[in-house]
Amino acid sequence: MQSLIVGNWKMFKTVREAELFARRLVAELEIPPDREVVIAPAFPALYTVAAVLGGSAIKLAAQNVHDQVQGAFTGEVSAGMLIDAGCKYVIIGHSERRTFFGETDDIIRRKLSAALASGLRPILCIGETLAEREQGATLTVIAGQIKEGLKNINLGDIGSVSIAYEPVWAIGTGKTATPEQAQEVHAFIRSTMKDAYGKELAGKLRIIYGGSVNFGNIGKLMSEKDINGALVGGASLDIESFSEIVKYKEV
Ligand code: PGA
């Protein structure tokens, strides 16, 4: 299995900045063969960055998608439009979308379904808040988000989904889950997926970790058995830091 390293640029970088950054990545980034690298710029930069990435090994993701094919939905972007702009992946259900934009598990499931119908590969984000962790509810929350997020999705499509475990308390806070904490949840996600969809699918599922990942902590996280990549926010915005992350060595 190739590990999946995704740079989530959030609401950073203008079109010009994104273009220049992508040019440098294409020219300079050394990607070991056992990993796949994806960047997720903001909507306005997608088409321009897609042209820069061209035939390179770096893939493009969007950070959000609407659940309808087209229509009178001011301010929204459809999965077909994202494919047309050059995206292969889409991040769905990021905790910032859940918290600031009221995305529920039901909305997330509809987005997932729309993405899959258009051939986009969803990266489904799940994770507990600090209060939920302190109440000992982490695994219950995770199980619920998986069940609701993937409800009624065709078995044939589930293989295109990756799951990002991002504890909300670790995002942008500098507080990373310890490799052991992350591994515990990742193993639980895999066993939940195994119970729901079978051993083969669960074995191939990429479960990536997100929340204050940087080049200093990625090696240890990646040495855990069920951690198959990383969703990187802040540390993906700088070329040197992102390059070091991509070249991580398990420790
Ligand atoms: P962070 O963000 O790496 O800045 O914590 C991760 C994310 O939100 O995907």
Order of helices and strands: EHEHEHEHHEHHHEHHEHEH
Structural class computed from helices and strand pairing: alpha/beta
**Radius of gyration in whole Å, from Cα?**
17 Å
Our estimate of the beta-strand percent is 15-25%
Helix amount:
40-55%
Return residue spans where pLDDT drops below 50 for at least 5 consecutive residues: none
Task: Please give the number of β-strands.
Answer: 8
Name the ligand types.
2-phosphoglycolic acid
Q: Average pLDDT, to the nearest integer? A: 97
> In angstroms, what separates the terminal alpha carbons?
19 Å
Q: What gross morphology would you assign?
A: globular
CATH level-4 homologous superfamily: Aldolase class I
What does this structure look like?
The protein has about 250 residues and is of the alpha/beta class. The chain has a single domain, classed as Alpha-Beta Barrel (TIM Barrel), CATH 3.20.20. It is about 45% helix and about 15% strand. It is built from twelve helices and eight strands. The protein has helices at about 15-30, 45-55, 80-85, 95-100, 105-120, 130-135, 140-150, 155-160, 180-195, 200-205, 220, 240-245; strands spanning about 5-10, 35-40, 60, 90, 120-125, 160-165, 205-210, 230. The chain has an eight-stranded parallel barrel, surrounded by five helices. Strand 7 (about 205-210), helix 11 and strand 8 form a beta-alpha-beta unit. The protein is globular and about 45 Å long. The chain binds 2-phosphoglycolic acid (PGA). 2-phosphoglycolic acid binds next to strand 8.
